[in-house]
Design a protein that fits this description.
The protein is mainly beta and about 140 residues long. Pfam families: Phage_T4_gp19.
C-alpha cells in the first residue's frame, strides 16, 4: 500500500478573474460553516432538542503579497469605494511537490471588503506587504 503524505501549505496559487498578477505570500480564512438551529417539537415528551442545519457561510479570505507597481488589487478595492462593485470568481489551488494541481477551492462572487497597506520601518529590510480581504458568497471544493 502506497503511503500518502500530506500536501505542503506553501505550494499554492490563486486565480482571480480579470487579474493576472496573483503571486501571494499567504492565504488565510478559507473555511465553511453552517449555523445550528435548535428545535423542539411541541408534542415531544422529552425535554430534548433536535438540531437542524441553518444558513451556511464562509469567512472572509485574506491574501497577502509583496506590494509592487501592479495596481490591480488596489484598483479592484477602489472600485468598491467608488460604487462600482465588481464581483469576481476566485480559485485557491493547492499543488503537490511536482507543481500539479491537487485541490481547488472556488469562491463565488468575491469582492474586496478591505485593503491593508504595508507598514514602514527605515531600519528593516523586510518586503512591504499589502493585504486584501475578500468576502464571498460560498466555497466549493474540486479535484479532491
Amino acid at each position: 500500500m502506497a503511503q500518502t503524505d500530506p500536501f505542503r501549505g506553501y505550494n499554492f496559487k490563486v486565480e482571480i478573474d480579470g487579474i493576472t498578477s496573483t503571486a501571494f505570500k499567504e492565504c488565510s480564512g478559507l473555511d465553511s460553516s453552517t449555523t445550528v438551529v435548535s428545535y423542539r417539537e411541541g408534542t415531544d415528551p422529552t425535554l430534548g432538542q433536535r438540531k437542524l442545519p441553518g444558513l451556511s457561510s464562509g469567512s472572509n479570505v485574506t491574501l497577502r503579497r509583496g506590494i509592487t507597481a501592479d495596481r490591480s488589487l488596489w484598483d479592484w478595492r477602489d472600485s468598491v469605494n467608488s460604487g462600482d462593485l465588481q464581483r469576481r470568481d476566485l480559485s485557491i489551488i493547492l499543488m503537490n511537490e511536482k507543481g500539479e494541481e491537487q485541490i481547488r477551492w472556488n469562491l463565488k462572487n468575491a469582492w474586496p471588503a478591505r485593503w491593508n497597506g504595508p507598514g514602514f520601518d527605515a531600519t528593516s529590510d523586510a518586503v512591504a506587504i499589502e493585504a486584501l480581504e475578500l468576502t464571498h458568497e460560498g466555497v466549493e471544493a474540486q479535484t479532491w
